[in-house]
Amino acid sequence: MHNRVGIGWRPELAAGILSNLDRIDVLEVIAEDFFDRSARLRALKTLAAQVPIVIHGVSLGLASTAPADRKRLEKMARLVERVQPESWSEHLAFVRAGDIDIGHLAAPPRTSGTVDSAAANLAAAEAVVGSLPLMENIATLVNPPASDRDEPRWLCETLAASNVGLLLDLHNLYANSVNFGLDPKDFLALLPSERIHAVHISGGKWIHNGDLSQQRILDDHLHDPPDPVYDLLTDLAARCPNPLTVVLERDGAYPSIDHLLAQLDRARQALEFGRATQPDMSAPLRPLPLMETPGVGSPSRMRGVT
Amino acid sequence: MNPTALEQFLAKIYVDSMARKRFLAAPQAEAARAGLSKEQCEALEAIDRVGLEMAAHSFARKRTRKQSAAASSSSHWWRVCGSLIPLRVLVAFARNRRSAKDTL
Fold it and tell me: Distance between CA B65 and CA A53 in Å, rounded?
């Protein structure tokens, strides 16, 4: 099983990345950095000839109850068509409403209504771009009001209704779990591992409003991934049947490239450790007893265990 | 129940500190004033207040960072332009000298 580990492309890291491409399997670029920028796009195409590229969008707001913006989808479609990335991804979030631009990713209320509207927006995205994105779970500091289900259930329902794969951000999962009283490992165990194809790892910090009993983790991408994120990566590798592409996200307070490469190595080790504990995925399937009718594609059947 | 109106209301209290202050002083009344349903108003009454303030500050920081990144990108452009200005001045100076010599 071929897992890969890479890093998010940032101009500040360019020199370090380009001089260490032998230690970086894949680069993730932010789509909006290349919208309507022909010179940058030419540079990106040159880069894509040297290393596998995946594209990550941050502005489409595909989990909004409002229809996805056609012009933004068309920009994404042009970028995907020109760069021919291995995949593209977006977030299960809304980023604007009416004429208000929130400026970042906001968690929608977790209801059947937002499951349906995300599915409709993703169908529109597929129609315009030509392929479905992988969808990422977001970090949130506020439990979205008017929700009638928890995050794991909402994620499972949204992925199923939209038939999309999950880009699992393990720090977002960890931060939301800690902030809202879930066990991160239980959260991970509830997700459909067969839909997980890509992973983000990053770090954050504790914040509070003056009351230390009300601390929360802010996913700021300015710190190293904490130990529990690597533990979750090992757990994921142990149960996910797909090859995984892991990307380290860093958006500032940049350490040396050697420091970042060491984090990529640690992610590789976490993956290998998890894979080593996984049952043999290549084992032939044994016939099932006649009366047994497991769900299609259930992990037990895929792994040849009856 | 209008989910789009709820999303707009949330966006408003996430980005507008005065609207947030009015909302936190009278959640149900402000939500009702925005045309939200009874169920939505009740849900907003029970909002996670600590999280709301933290999220609002985080969103504000992100918007500021975006603006300064855009300004820095544009200042980079002006630096590029700025480096061309001395060249243009030199060319203009040389032309002026040539035309002055021609006149003499």
Answer: 26
The CATH number linked to A52 is 3.20.20.150
* Closest to A121 (Cα-Cα) out of A107, A110, A135, A140: A135
Structural domain for A216, as ranges: 4-256
- Segment (H or E) for B102: helix B49-103
Residue A203 lies in a domain: yes
Contact, A17 vs A47, CB < 8 A? no
Question: Does residue A15 sit within a domain?
Answer: yes
Interface of B with A in 14-53 (CB under 8 A): 14-16, 39-40, 43-44, 46-48, 50-53
Residue A86 maps to a domain? yes
Contacts of A20 (CB under 8 A, 6+ apart): A257, A261
Q: How confident is the model at residue B100 (pLDDT cuts 50, 70, 90)?
A: low
Helices (DSSP H) in chain A: which residue ranges? Answer: 14-18, 38-48, 70-83, 112-129, 151-162, 170-180, 184-190, 227-239, 257-276, 299-302
User: Which residues touch A221 (CB under 8 Å, ≥6 apart)?
Assistant: A202, A203, A204, A249, A250, A251, A252
For the residues B1-30, what does the mean pLDDT come to? Answer: 95
Partner B contacted by A213 (CB < 8 A): no
Provide, rounded to the nearest whole percent, the portion of chain A with pLDDT above 70. 91
Distance in Å from the first CA to the final CA of chain A: 22
Strands A100-106 and A94-97 turn out to be antiparallel
Place of tokens 């969103």: B59
Residues of A within 8 A of B46 (CB-CB) are 145
Residue A146 lies in a domain: yes
**A contacts of B35 (beta carbons < 8 Å):** none
pTM for this predicted structure: 0.86
pLDDT tens digit sequence for A69-117: 999 999 999 999 999 999 999 999 999 999 999 999 999 999 999 999 9
- How many domains is chain A built from? 1
Whether residue A172 lies within 8 A of chain B, CB to CB, comes out as no
